[in-house]
């Protein structure tokens, strides 16, 4: 996409400074304090982050805070630590021992509207983590082994992640909405030796058959030696003798004590698969020390976390937000973090507001797509509840449209709670652009200013900063502690993907502009990555799924704007000779994409368009820009002289009429 395509039309004049009362009690209280800390974090990152890291526990100190050989960073070089020790033992051995670490609320409710709730203290979380760590050890899982976690949002998912971190196994969590095929691809890519799953998971009253998907995936994954299954729903599942084990049976013989493995600061911590602009999802690799410091510090300051907060990040642990903010960042700060198992509209559209009142949630962090759904369901569902306990709101995952921001501010926050709109990525590990709630006057639609240590800019293709309000490429110019260390098993792809677009800088893949106050307005991806309901999808992945269908000759997938989901996928499909387009085939194709990737990647039936051929350049490249314009319902603008067959364009539009 060319520079001139990055134009921003959004003009927003409303400003919302934090109240004096909020600023007074906040960790960071003034713009002057932020600026001073920010300046030090950029000019002397070693001093700044060395000091922060000392707030955590290290078995052995570092020799050097940072070693930077572009594009490979090492943080806290030579140090030894353990993330699970810092999340658990540090608190369990203190006055926080019996503080609630995790509040869990199950989805199902009985006839009397009573739900299943579990409150887990720091001490108990430590014990249950240790017990499961011993289970993993008893199955032969060792430091460095890869372990897949494909689970519903139940406390055992947290025990599993923390147990891996405790013994130095590298976890890779797969969101429960992904298909067997997607699970297989990920296992094969990282060569995992074990899978932790459940018989099923509850979602909007029905059961997702996780174990069945694992069975189908593992049949094609010879590296998998063990499958550990939590009994959650109780539906019958196949248990392969010698390979599959019930969690509750294994844990009976496991002790509640397990020493945390001293991990090198740069030892791998987890791999999380995410979509890129080409081919299969890539395994983003995060390591121990830097990720720990980044998630600790951002959670503390972005959410202004205090001892008595009840903090709720609604993200599933299958996404990076669930890793950093539902689990690790919260526990590193000794906070009380809430986990809800199910859908926001089960049994009714006010479930989340009911949960907020039930537990006295003070900090609530969710995604714009969820906020747009709440708006659609109607504010009467919100108004049934007081929401008096809330003091801070957050959003993440995609640009938030100002009207959704205003609704969040007024209807949920009652004009009382600051909103932190946080911009970041799977790759960045932690929030990069964000207001500080006691400091930054917010404007609806912008993630405002950089966090500490984040040297971020909007530049042109030559790497030169563009003037205020001119669109450009969002880049990061210095290494930061929680940055990805690579793409698992593919250093070349890492270099090419992130470090070759603009010399010397990390390229985020996003377009942005900076306003006169220096605030960043992120406009979205400029590559072939699409953000559907806050889930990142590569259009190429969906295309290759479609082309894998026996009746499909060729497919091109692009995004169109969508009121609810931010963006939606539109698939242009050409069929093999003799195949008849129609609704039945659309259903077949949707089911096929669901099977290959997962339901989240299915285009709506109305967004599958059959066509005789696709517009191509003379060199045979599909002209996606044109398809995007058609998909968005707009006129086809711009240069079309390289089109091989002009008539196709007209045809594609008539199909739509
Ligand atoms: O395009 C940006 C968008 O989401 C992308 C990262 O997606 P993912 O790796 O799945 O991580 C999502 C959760 C951290 C970014 O490149 N994005 C994320 N947050 C925002 C955003 N766009 C605008 N504003 C945000 N606050």
How would you explain this protein's 3D organization?
The chain has 657 residues and is α/β, with parallel strands linked by helices. Helix content is 31%, strand content 23%. The strands form nine sheets. A seven-stranded mixed β-sheet has the order 5-4-17-16-18-19-20, sandwiched between helices. Strand 14 and strand 15 (282-287) form a beta hairpin. The radius of gyration is 24 Å and the shape is globular. The relative contact order is 0.11. It binds adenosine-5'-monophosphate-propyl ester. Residues 274, 320-321, 396-399, 421-426, 447, 508-510, 522, 524-525, 531, 536 line the site of adenosine-5'-monophosphate-propyl ester (PRX).
Q: What would a concise description of this structure say?
A:
The protein is an alpha/beta fold and 657 residues long. The chain is built from 20 helices and 30 strands.
Secondary structure layout:
Elements: H1 20-25, H2 31-43, H3 45-53, E1 64-69, E2 72-77, E3 80-81, H4 83-92, E4 100-109, E5 115-121, H5 122-138, E6 146-150, H6 155-167, E7 170-173, H7 180-190, E8 194-198, E9 201-203, E10 206-208, H8 210-218, E11 226-230, E12 244-246, H9 247-250, E13 263-264, E14 268-274, E15 282-287, H10 288-302, E16 310-313, H11 320-332, E17 336-340, H12 351-359, E18 363-366, H13 368-377, H14 380-383, E19 392-396, H15 402-412, E20 419-422, E21 456-459, E22 472-476, E23 486-487, H16 491-499, E24 506-514, E25 520-525, E26 529-532, E27 535-538, H17 539-547, E28 552-562, E29 566-575, H18 583-596, E30 608-610, H19 624-631, H20 646-656
Parallel strand pairs: 4-17, 6-7, 6-8, 8-11, 11-12, 16-17, 16-18, 18-19, 19-20, 29-30
Antiparallel strand pairs: 1-2, 3-13, 4-5, 9-10, 14-15, 15-23, 21-22, 22-24, 24-25, 26-27, 28-29
The structure holds adenosine-5'-monophosphate-propyl ester.
Adenosine-5'-monophosphate-propyl ester binds at residues 274, 320-321, 396-399, 421-426, 447, 508-510, 522, 524-525, 531, 536.
């Amino acid at each position: 996409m060319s520079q001139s395509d990055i134009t921003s039309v959004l003009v927003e004049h409303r400003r919302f400074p934090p109240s004096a009362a909020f600023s007074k009690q906040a960790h960071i209280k003034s713009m002057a304090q932020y600026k001073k800390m920010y300046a030090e974090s950029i000019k002397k990152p070693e001093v700044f982050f060395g000091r922060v890291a000392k707030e955590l526990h290290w078995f052995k100190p570092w020799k050097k805070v940072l070693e930077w050989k572009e594009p490979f960073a090492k943080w806290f070089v030579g140090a030894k630590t353990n993330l699970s020790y810092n999340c658990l033992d540090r608190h369990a051995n203190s006055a926080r021992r019996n503080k609630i670490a995790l509040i869990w609320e199950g989805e199902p409710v009985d006839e009397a509207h009573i739900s299943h709730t579990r409150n887990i203290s720091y001490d108990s979380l430590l014990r249950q983590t240790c017990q499961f760590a011993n289970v993993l050890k008893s199955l032969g899982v060792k430091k460095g082994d890869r372990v897949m976690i494909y689970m519903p949002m139940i406390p055992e998912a947290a025990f599993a992640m923390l147990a891996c971190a405790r013994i130095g196994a590298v976890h890779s969590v797969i969101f429960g909405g992904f298909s067997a095929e997607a699970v297989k691809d990920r296992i094969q890519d990282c060569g995992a030796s074990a899978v932790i799953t459940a018989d099923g998971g509850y979602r909007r009253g029905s059961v997702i058959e996780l174990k069945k998907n694992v069975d189908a995936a593992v049949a094609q994954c010879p590296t998998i030696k063990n499958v550990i299954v939590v009994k959650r729903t109780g539906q019958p599942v196949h248990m392969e003798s010698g390979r599959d084990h019930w969690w509750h049976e294994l844990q009976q013989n496991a002790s509640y004590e397990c020493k945390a493995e001293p991990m090198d600061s740069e030892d791998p911590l987890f791999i999380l698969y995410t979509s890129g602009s080409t081919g299969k999802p890539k395994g983003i690799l995060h390591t121990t020390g830097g990720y720990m410091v980044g998630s600790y510090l951002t959670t503390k300051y972005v959410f202004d976390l205090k001892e008595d907060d009840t903090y709720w990040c609604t993200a599933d642990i299958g996404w990076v937000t669930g890793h950093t903010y539902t689990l690790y960042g919260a526990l590193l700060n000794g906070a009380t973090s809430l986990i809800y198992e199910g859908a926001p509209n089960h049994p009714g559209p006010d479930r989340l507001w009911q949960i907020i009142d039930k537990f006295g949630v003070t900090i609530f962090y969710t995604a714009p797509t969820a906020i747009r759904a709440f708006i659609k369901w109607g504010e009467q569902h919100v108004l049934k509840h007081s929401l008096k306990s809330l003091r801070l709101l957050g959003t993440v995952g995609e640009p938030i449209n100002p009207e959704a921001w205003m609704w969040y501010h007024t209807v949920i926050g009652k004009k009382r709670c600051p909103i932190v709109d946080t911009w970041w990525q799977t790759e960045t590990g932690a929030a990069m652009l964000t207001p500080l709630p006691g400091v930054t006057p917010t404007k609806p639609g912008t993630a405002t200013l950089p966090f500490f240590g984040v040297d971020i800019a909007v530049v042109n293709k030559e790497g030169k900063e563009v003037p205020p309000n001119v669109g450009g490429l969002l880049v990061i110019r210095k290494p930061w502690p929680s940055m990805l260390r690579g793409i698992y098993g593919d250093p070349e792809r890492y270099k090419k993907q992130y470090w070759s677009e603009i010399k010397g800088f990390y390229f985020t893949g996003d377009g942005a502009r900076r306003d006169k106050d220096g605030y960043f307005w992120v406009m979205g991806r400029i590559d072939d990555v699409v953000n559907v309901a806050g889930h990142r999808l590569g259009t190429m992945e969906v295309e290759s799924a479609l082309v894998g269908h026996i009746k499909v000759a060729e497919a091109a997938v692009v995004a169109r704007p969508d009121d609810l989901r931010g963006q939606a996928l539109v698939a242009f499909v050409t069929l093999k000779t003799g195949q008849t387009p129609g609704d039945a085939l659309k259903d077949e194709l949707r089911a096929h994409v669901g099977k290959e990737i997962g339901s989240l990647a299915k285009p709506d039936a109305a967004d599958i368009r059959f066509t005789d051929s696709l517009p191509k350049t003379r060199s045979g490249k599909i002209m996606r820009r044109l398809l995007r314009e058609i998909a968005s319902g707009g006129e086809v603008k711009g240069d079309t002289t390289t089109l091989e067959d002009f008539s196709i364009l007209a045809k594609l539009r008539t199909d739509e009429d």
